[in-house]
Specification:
The chain is an alpha+beta fold. It has 2 domains: about 10-145, Jelly Rolls, CATH 2.60.120; about 150-225, Winged helix-like DNA-binding domain superfamily/Winged helix DNA-binding domain (Arc Repressor Mutant, subunit A, Orthogonal Bundle), CATH 1.10.10.10. Helix content is about 40%, strand content about 25%. It has helices spanning about 25-30, 110-120, 120-145, 150-165, 175-185, 190-200, 215-225; strands at about 10, 35-40, 45, 55-60, 60-65, 75-80, 85, 95-100, 105-110, 170, 205, 210-215. The strands form 3 sheets. The chain has a 5-stranded antiparallel beta sheet with strand order 1-2-9-4-7.
């Protein structure tokens, strides 16, 4: 059974525009969507639920995760405002998705969107491109986990977050150190040490646990490319 754990829903507001999709396609998607609000740690869907919906993040952040056989948790991706989640070819979700913080998403019926994509090839091509981009991200993650040191992994992660949602050199990380560790294959303590090392080297400034300022972007990029 599909599990949507949100407690508040409302019609999709016309102001929710994702600039990465053509305007005409967006207007059509707007009419198909419903806003869903999740509390922190609340599941959007669980592994094995029927993949009946696609989603777009409006605010907040989501993480996809899977429990391994030995009980460890792997965090696959983080989804930030503007990102789509659930674009899968399988009939069931192969991972769980949870809210990192209070999060608002738009929920689209998969059947309705797929039918619309057949009528509007431009929309279909864009959604296909998003799905392919997600696959590319997964392949990049495999290289990151297989070849890079802890400091290099953190550098890559910080650069990625800066490109996706940073405000200049300032970055807000909604996720915890444990989330980051489970995403990068590191312990929480190793994540904290790597951040501290980057701070000592003058590469970043730690304003708080969730707020970072990049002080030397070139050095950060060199570390990220070292693996």
């Amino acid at each position: 059974m599909q599990t949507i754990a949100a407690v508040r829903t409302s019609p999709f507001p016309s102001s929710g525009v994702d600039s990465r999709l053509p305007g005409d396609d967006l207007g059509t998607l707007d009419r198909l969507g419903t806003v869903v609000t999740l509390r922190r740690e609340q599941p959007l869907f669980r592994e094995g639920d029927r993949a009946d919906f696609y989603f777009k993040v409006i605010s907040g952040a989501l993480r996809t995760c899977k429990l391994l056989a030995d009980g460890r948790r792997h965090v696959g991706e983080f989804f930030l405002p503007g990102d789509f989640i659930g674009l899968t070819a399988t009939s069931d979700y192969i991972f769980a998705a949870e809210a990192v913080s209070e999060t608002v998403v738009v929920r689209y019926s998969r059947r309705s969107v797929d039918a619309l994509a057949l009528q509007e090839p431009r929309l279909g091509r864009r959604l296909f491109a998003i799905a392919c981009e997600s696959l590319s991200v997964a392949q990049h993650q495999m290289v990151l986990l297989g070849r890079k040191t802890a400091e290099e992994r953190i550098a890559s992660f910080v650069l990625d977050m800066a490109e996706r949602g940073g405000d200049g050199d300032g970055i807000t990380l909604p996720m915890t150190r444990t989330d980051i560790g489970d995403h990068l294959g590191l312990t929480m303590e190793t994540v904290s040490r790597a951040f501290a090392q980057l701070k000592r080297e003058g590469v970043i400034e730690l304003k708080s646990t969730h707020n970072i300022v990049i002080r030397d972007r070139d050095a950060l990029a060199d570390l990220a490319d070292a693996g």
